[in-house]
Amino acid sequence: MRSQSRIAFYLLLTPLVLWLGLLIIIPHIDMLLISLRERISFGVYETSLTQYEKALTEPLYLRTFARTAVMSVLATAITLLIAFPVAYYIAKMAKGRLQQVLFMLCLIPFYVSELVRTFGWMILLRETGIISNLLQWTGLADQPVELLYTDATMMVGLVYTSMLFMVVPLVTTLESLDDSVVEAGYDLGGNGLSVLREIIIPHAMPGIVSGCIVVFMLSLGNYLTPTMLGGKDSLWFTEMIYNQFIVRSNWELGAAFGFMLLLLSSVIVWGMLRLTGRTLKETMG
Amino acid sequence: MTPDLECADLVKQFGETTAVDNVSFSVPPGSFFSILGPSGCGKTTIMRMIAGFLDPTSGDIRIKGGSVLDTPPNKRPVNMVFQHLALFPMMTIAENIGYGLRRRGMAKPDIARKVDEALDRIGLPGIGTRKVDELSGGQKQRVAIARCMVLEPDVLLLDEPLGALDLKLREHMKVELKALQAAFDTTFVYITHDQSEALVMSDQVAVMNDGRFEQIGTGQDLYYRPDTPFVAGFIGDSNRWKGRIERSEAGTVQLRTDTGLAMRASGADLAEGTAAEIYVRPEAIRIAATAEALSTFDNQLKGTVTSLLFNGAASRVLVQDDVGETLEVTLPQSGEFASLQRGDTVHIGWGATQATCFGAG
């Protein structure tokens, strides 16, 4: 009986071990090894830290690295600021059918591929696009306006792409907040701001943290939006990884970039958890 | 003396339905006032209007003589103990109790002192650093009251706060609430659907039904002298008959029930020939082995025991009379009826003053 249940345990464990091993651990070990070697001549490699040295000394690489980090944090913050009132409305103010409809409306854009959605933005914002034409027609602009290829456009795209992943955890945590707790907050003399700060936000903290982690990681690892909506100055770190692997065939440097990105996201997520005084276990479980 | 709380012609409509229909009452300072009624009768709506979460359709709410209709809930001198207490789970007990004081901008050391005083007052000193979910149901109850009482409100509203507790604790908390009210010397307005909570604790009880107050009075008034059939039926249990008045004089009526029993009851202003309803409480009926023992009672019947309903002190017997009606009679626990069995013949009787009569329609 005991040995049988043990066999069952290992059988159930196998897919997980295979998944982790084949798709995550082995490729990453390989990437780490690639990033730690230097090509001397054709087919001859030597172990060295040259790739990391290059990555950390070349101003373009470093600037892009820092820019990607800062912009992702900013995108996460903007997403949180926009998603919180939306989620609060859906979870607490809307009732019954309206609540379901609003939630569906948040979901519907995600039925369409990200590529198509990004093209949607391009149709709206390009020089010959709808908004440009509208501005000319109303006389607010006397020539075509190019709204694409700026950091602001890219930010709009990033926020739009991440919205749902912030709204869902927020709605879930806010729904579990008892209305009478909010009323008690007012009844005992609180105003809107203090109730928000002392009651609603502390209650929603698990949702805020998990939403922020997901949105931050999505933004940091986003490739499509920065490439299509960003300008020539808004280089994203993932674009650089792509360039090294595919365009330059410089797998060594690409792998080093990849590891720097992994390190960056780990450090920022850890920092976010430290800042809010939560553990990963609390947030995910 | 100015009443602490006064509601005048209060009306609240939700669309077509009238939840509160022209309710007026006033609560003198330092008293315990209860609103008792079945679920959905509008008592919570009254409470939420007093707290300020709902605006009345018409009428006025005055606290210590001044109208509070234009005062938002966070500025009203009333505080509320919610049905599920609504303690803030993200805060410690001390932070919970100190919340309202912090909102008033009180200095930290003063808050700490006030919180300690409040914890002493509710008999839970030293639990300030604990989390809400570490407390038992009764302790949470007391913390919820302390959280309101540190603000020294003019009126404390309590919305069925004992509903979530188990029976034993509820009995205990009834006594404790009454003691706390005396200790804080504050006006309590308590709403409940549990008549025993209302009767045990209150100085005054308002019985509410379908948006209206049926009667306001002390527990004794409601129990012994109900004004309306609803109150007679809602407070305590009753045996009921429908009948017609045969003779009426000086507050006493003689009537005949539809089943043919002649009966004497108390009921003023009922003309001969009008239809009436009679209410007799099971505990007002005396049970005896012989007819002689009941000779002093106005109404006497002979019947057969059809069922014994044992429930400790509240045990009853069902007695079927000659015309086939079943009456509930409280069984005295003094020992003389310990051997009573199904099928035994018994005599029952009650006085005219114990039978309350209302005109029916």
Task: Walk me through what this model shows.
- The complex is a heterodimer of chains A (285) and B (361).
- The model of chain A has no long low-confidence stretch (mean pLDDT 88).
- Chain A starts with a helix and ends with a helix.
- Chain A has a two-stranded antiparallel ribbon.
- In chain A, a hairpin with a 2-residue loop joins strand 1 and strand 2.
- Chain A has a single domain, classed as MetI-like fold (Orthogonal Bundle).
- Chain A has 285 residues and is mainly α.
- Chain A contains 13 helices and 2 strands.
- Chain B has 361 residues and is of the alpha+beta class.
- In chain B, helix 2 packs across helix 3.
- The model of chain B has no long low-confidence stretch (mean pLDDT 88).
- In chain B, 39% of the residues are buried.
- In chain B, the strands form 4 sheets. In chain B, strands 6-7-8-3-9-10 form a 6-stranded mixed β-sheet, with helices on both faces. In chain B, strands 13-12-11-14-20 form a 5-stranded antiparallel β-sheet. Chain B has a 5-stranded antiparallel β-sheet with strand order 15-19-16-17-18, with no helix packed on it.
- Chain B has 2 domains: 228 residues, Rossmann fold; 121 residues, OB fold (Dihydrolipoamide Acetyltransferase, E2P) (Beta Barrel), CATH 2.40.50.140.
- The chains are: A mainly alpha (285), B alpha+beta (361).
- At the A-B interface, helix 8 and helix 9 of A face helix 2 of B.
